[in-house]
Amino acid sequence: MPDHAWASEAAAGARRVLVLRVLTALCQAAALYLITAAARMPLSWPATHPAAFVALLLVSCFVPLLILFGLGQVRPRPLLLWACAAAVAAAGLGVHDALRGRVPDFHGPEVSWPSFPLWIALAASLFVAHVLVIDSIIERRLVSSYPRHFDTSWKVAVQSGLAIAFVGVFWGVLELGAGLFKLVDVDFFRRLIGRRWFVFPATTLALAVAIHATDVQPALIRGARSMALALFSWLLPLLAAILLGFLASLPFISLAPLWKTHFATLLLLTAAILLVILINSCYQDGAAEQTRSRIKRGAVRVAAIELLPLVGLAAYALWLRIGQYGLTVERIQAAAVIVLVACYAAGYATASLRSPAWMQRMEVTNRIAAWLFIAVVLTLFSPLADPARLMVADQVARLRSGAVSADTFDFGALKFDGARWGAAALEQMARATEGAQAAPVADRARRALALQNRYEWNQAALQSPTADALAQRIVVRPAGRALPPTFVNDALMAPYSGAGRPNCTVQAGPVCIARFVDLGQGRAEAIVFIDAFSNGFLFESGPDGRWLKSALLQGNYRCAEMRSQFEEGQIRLQPHPWPDLLVGGRSIEIQSFPAPCGPP
């Protein structure tokens, strides 16, 4: 075929791909518009059915992106089959995410949006699966060549980064235009770009155009990839040297400080994952030109061996925490990450010692780890091994066996992290009548079931101290006075009401000051309560004799001079300098900003 004919056919093929990408983007925009419109009050289908809503939303977000990246790479029929398989997987995980149930951290609209961990896990697993599937289709074999995997994965990664950057700049230009029109009192453009029917197609079309522009410029992708890998690869010798010094010092020091950090597992796993990334930045596709630098070759071999003790320490730290406090959702997820990183560690160490060519067996490890990652995501985000179910089973077993007492048991974890299994366990505990801990377990389970948000539980879970213990944290003034007998139970141990609590009631360290004050104007004596930070409260006795929190105090109670004068009783009443605003029958109080301790 003549060169001009080949070029003409290639241009026509590129135009067809662009048209298909534009149509895909428009279909995605329409789907997202309709699905999100259903989530606006009053709710309509599918937002009234959480399983359908979450499944359709995930499919509409991810599957069109796979089609956008796959167009021009493979034929339409296998691409459509892959998109259908991905849609089934995304919908299945979405249905489970909706049906497993969860309590939001804070009260909000009753719409079951996909959980944030599912967004991240699904995006990462679909990226890995897309590379494996597309390469298999292109080479027409189940196990594709490693250079093909390397080229496709980095191409999609760079395309994604450039496309996201383009969309961000695109919206920045639109906002700039809206600001310019606003200068001349033209608000039409800002209202236009804020309409949902404009936002969705504008964003998806910009994304499609960015993907297409980078797809027809392979030299751009390869240049950006080469530059990024060249820079990252030189970080490996530095990190390998740092880790070598850290590991070499361990036999001569105690590991106790490491475990006391309470985030040793996270830190060690972060170092291990960064090692894996930098090792692959040096190895790349295994071509001969990647093996010329002796410094990089030596750093790769050292780093491959360092992975083993890092993973071992992370696993040991996690094992200690699980032995002490049992399973949690985060610890189960950390265990899954350790299994995945351990696969890399074992494979890379073997490759470093036994590869016939330089680290060639890394390629087998990377393939196995890719499939293992997909399997882990499907397992953790499906009924097979949902972390919430495993956590609830383990924690309930610890409570029943007496390994943990009712006073220290984390009922909030069952409420907010245990999904439907946690709710079922709490309902069963609330009806408990047998056992030495039956009464306190039932009481705390009922309290946990009544909680509305996680912050409320964080306050209640600290367990308000007894009156005697609380008395040790409160300085009562004037000297010689004592708090009323019912004050602690009425005011300080009452359930969280949304207006805050003095920190001395929920923490053992801080000290609060309670002072009796006469507010004048025929009002009964009140108690002003300030804590160690900047929380102040006014408590008054109600008609029934109960002490109630009636007002908040605005001030800077951290100032030592102010606290000292407050204790000494250097207090005068002063009329409020600002009147209240009355808006629609409701009062709005104007408050001054707290003054700093020192001169401004």
Explain this structure.
It is a single chain. This protein is mainly alpha-helical and 600 residues long. The N and C termini lie far apart (80 Å). A five-stranded mixed sheet has the order 1-2-3-4-5. It has four domains: 17-225, no CATH class; 253-380, no CATH class; 387-461, no CATH class; 467-588, no CATH class. α21 (487-492) links the parallel β1 (474-477) and β2 (512-517). The model has no long low-confidence stretch (mean pLDDT 86). α5 crosses α8 (218-233) and α12 (294-325) runs antiparallel to α13. The chain is built from 22 helices and seven strands. The relative contact order is 0.05.
Would you kindly provide a brief summary of this structure?
This protein is mainly alpha-helical. The chain is built from 22 helices and seven strands.
- Sheet with the most strands, sense and barrel status: 5 strands, mixed
Order of helices and strands: HHHHHHHHHHHHHHHHHHHHEHEEEEHEE
What's the number of domains?
A: 4
How much helix is in the residues?
55-70%
User: Which shape, going by the Cα principal axes?
Assistant: globular
If you compute it from the alpha carbons, what radius of gyration comes out, rounded to the nearest whole angstrom? 31 Å
Q: How many DSSP E strands?
A: 7
Average pLDDT confidence is 86
Helices and strands: which structural class?
Answer: mainly alpha
Q: Uncertain spans, ≥5 residues at pLDDT below 50?
A: none
Distance between the termini: 80 Å
Q: Could you tell me the strand content as a percent range?
A: 5-15%
Please list the strands of the largest sheet in the order they lie side by side: 1-2-3-4-5
What is the overall number of helices?
22
